[in-house]
Hints:
Layout: H1 10-22, H2 45-48, H3 76-92, H4 95-103, H5 106-111, H6 121-140, H7 149-152, H8 161-170, H9 180-194, H10 203-206, H11 214-223, E1 234-235, H12 237-258, H13 264-275, H14 279-284, E2 299-301, E3 304-307, E4 310-312, H15 316-330, H16 338-349, H17 353-361, E5 365-367, H18 371-379, H19 393-406, H20 409-449, H21 452-455, E6 457-461, E7 464-468
Parallel strand pairs: 4-5
Antiparallel strand pairs: 1-3, 2-3, 6-7
Helix pairs in contact: 3-6, 4-6, 4-8, 6-8, 9-11, 11-15, 12-13, 12-20, 16-19, 17-18
Amino acid sequence: MSTDSIFSSVESEQRWVLAMEKNFPQQHVLDIDFDIPCCVFRVSKILTEAKPEAYAPQHLGLGPYHHLRPELYIMQKQKLAAVRKFLGLEKVQKFRQVVEDLVQREPVLRACYDQYLDLDIQTLAWILAIDGLYLVQFLKNYPEMEHLAGDILMLENQIPVILLKKILRVLELAPNDQNDYSLFEEFETLCQAHSPLRLNKQRAIIGDVSQAHLLNRMYYLIVNNRGIQEEEYVSMFSAAVTRIGLNDVVDSVQFLAEQGLPGAGIAGQILSVVKKVPWDKILGLFKKGGPDEENPDIGFEEKNFYLPVIRVTATTEVVLRNLVAYEAATTEPGSTLELAEYVDLMCGIIDSSKDVEILRNEGIIESELPDEEIARIFNGIDKSTKKNDNKSSIEEAVDNVNSRYGNLLSVKVKRFLKRYGYALLKILGVLITITVLLLLTLQAFCSVFGCGRWFGKITAQSQNLLFSY
Length: 469
């Protein structure tokens, strides 16, 4: 077989032909929807190159992409034991019926995955039956298996809801559509425990159970979280942006003082006193409130930059990365990538543990992890979004902050000093050198030829030149 082909053998090619034939049955099949959209994606190499372990499960493989990985297959016995225990003697006898039912829906199984699955349909059906039922029992026994949550929430490890529903119905664990909601309630238990951002709790949003899988459900509840009241927002502009800008100016003035610039030392002392003034509390007196209920979680009004509270745990990096990967895989070209832009914003704000400390003190970051670890997480995530013609609300908020920040006097001074300070120092140094040379030359000339008739009598007192007439 050609190295450019998806086929590894003649048998592989025959399996492909059989799979294609199932998409065009000789007689119409009423209960099979052949237009199932793809929902489980391989993460692009652009994202996985930096940190592959954040996208590939490390302990538990679910579905055809990772079930058969040798290093993960050690979990197979535990999977089978958990499934048998969950079903009990009565239900376990119907498990083969689940497999056969999935076999009859081969086009649906394959359509859920974005890559061609070079597996016999029997193999594929057994993988999805075992892993699908394992996921169901995991959700029902979640607190006892929390250490596997990171793997469960990875994009490539998702089991489509359409298959989970079929498994539950065949086993009579969910006999009608009303019980579909119980599956999403279990989704939400896991989402609440591991979502970095707050989830929407409105009935109209929660009642929509059209999401394709667990990770899709978490993403949906995050990006549709609107209408948060003012007290749930945290203002960081006065406490962070203003303070950071003033710190930079003080540092710049101190640098000039160390270089010997006249007056810089006194200016530095004055700014050091100004720096200690509680500007966050003073500016807070002029705050007129947060964004209205129609605005997204991130906004900027007057002196206040609003960010949603983010809870950082041991699984946060994996969850954020996979949510961004899912968004990238499903968003249409030209659309705004809200979650990716938010993650990029946080990565831009956080450079060091000092930044984390500011955000933690302002109530924006909630975590039991040390500041250094949180900074490492955000520093390790590369920028994932590209500029497009349509600006999102996040981009507009950031543009407003940059405009306001750029107009601050302290920032203008800092930028002026950064751009021209070194050149001014060089020019000043040259002028001082020329002046000293001229004075020394004048002193030498006068000591030899005398300058009284032009400048009066020159005397030296206390190392200073005093001119008298």
